[in-house]
Design a protein that fits this description.
Length: 188
């Protein structure tokens, strides 16, 4: 398997085990994505002011009628982040009602989510790669290891909502692009 990539965190490359922890692939990754969404909301608000667009038009915009609006994409990204902490560590997660109607309220939700993520002690993640995570898809329960949950559900699901928010904003003329989606980088 040399040269191939595996979702199994025990996969070895070059004889050295992958040295990322579940904390490393969750809290910093989710925090970064939530901060990027917050920047998107700043740019969307500026766009509505510049173009004279009612902010609710953007906040309630959808890509297709059966999809969640921008507000719903922000709320699901927040919920995915909070729920992941509970599933991976057992910590109690806060509940936020889905009542946000303004850019400011959505930004406040993102900020509260980031604060919660950063409050979870790294030590709480010890052993989380083997923790059993049960989820329901319809009536079928699925039990995953913490590692499989983080790599095969949490990250893809979270970025589905980040990407969909990006696409809704772009479709509505907000001047964002790939560089905005990638966000700032820590320089080595």
């Amino acid at each position: 398997m040399n040269g191939t990539v595996s979702a199994d965190p025990r996969h070895k490359t070059g004889g050295n085990p992958l040295s990322l922890s579940i904390y490393d692939v969750s809290v910093p990754v989710l925090t970064r994505g939530l901060n990027i969404l917050s920047t998107y909301l700043d740019k969307a608000e500026a766009h509505t002011k510049e173009k004279g667009i009612d902010p609710s038009v953007i906040i309630h915009a959808r890509l297709f009628p059966d999809m969640l609006p921008l507000s719903g994409q922000i709320q699901r990204a927040s919920d995915t982040s909070k729920a992941a902490m509970g599933r991976l560590t057992g910590v109690e997660m806060p509940s936020f009602p889905d009542t946000e109607q303004t850019f400011g309220e959505l930004k406040e939700r993102l900020a509260k989510t980031v604060t919660f993520l950063q409050s979870v002690d790294r030590k709480a993640f010890e052993g989380s790669e083997e923790r059993k995570v049960e989820m329901k898809f319809g009536s079928d329960p699925v039990v995953l290891s913490g590692a499989t949950f983080a790599l095969s559900f949490m990250i893809p699901n979270f970025f589905f909502h980040v990407t969909t928010a990006h696409d809704i904003l772009r479709h509505n003329g907000v001047p964002i692009g790939k560089r905005d989606y990638l966000g700032p980088f820590d320089k080595v």
